[in-house]
Each structure stands twice: as structure tokens, then as C-alpha cells.
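Please produce the structure of this protein holding FE2/S2 (inorganic) cluster.
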Amino acid sequence: MSITFLNRSIWQRIFGISATDRPRDDKGWHYESGKLMIKLDLVPELTEPGTAVRFEGKNLPKRVLVVFGEDEQYRAFHNRCTHFGHRRLDYVPGTETVQCCSLNKSTYTFAGKKIHGPNPKPVDTFKVEKNGEQLIVQLT
Ligand code: FES
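Below is the modeled complex.
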């Protein structure tokens, strides 16, 4: 698999500034009983194929990157590169990969497998279910 690198500035990479935004409306998600629950009607950023949103804060125990791929499948990742800087990941449009926002650009497949960079391990992926207008990401 060839690797596509996101076009980011050197400063964005040095400071680890993610290309992926948080949801505009924080009321569109919550965490309970090991599940990240996302209301798609309040998080429309995740309804166009080829998009991604990062979830963090509130009582969420782990940062989560949710990708709605061009194949119209939802996928979720622990949003923490396994390299020692543990920076955030971004979806790379046009590919089936996610990539660390840092200088080393560690890259993982949608299955979490490392395919580029110094990252020592795969990244954790989480099961996602769609139930009507709700996404349920199982974190445990
Ligand atoms: S923190 Fe991801 S490559 Fe270093």
C-alpha cells in the first residue's frame, strides 16, 4: 500500500496540531457505560463520506477519532499514536489510512495496523454500530 501524507505545515507538525476538528455542537455526544454515543443529527460533520471528527473531553476516558469513510462505513480509533509523543491522528482522505499529525507521520490502516513511521505497535480500533441517527462506539 502506498502512503499518502497529509499536506500540513512544518509548524503544524512540530506542534502536533491535528487537521481534524471537534464537533461544532458538544451536545451531540456523550459517554456512558463504556460507550461513546453520537447523535448524527447534531454532528452533521460526520454524515458526508470522507469526513472525520475527534471526540475528547467531558468524561470520555480516551480520545476517539471517528471516520466516515468514502465507502460509507464508520470506523473509530483510539486517537493516540503509539509512538512516544502520543499525538493525535487524522484521517487521510482518498485512502484507507489514519496518520499521526506529528513530524514522523506514523500511518495506520483502517484495521489499526502500522504501515509507516516509528510507531512500535498498532493503534486500537473500536467497534461502531449505527442505530438510526445514533452512532455507538464501544470503548470497552
Ligand atoms: S507521536 Fe506519532 S509519530 Fe511520533
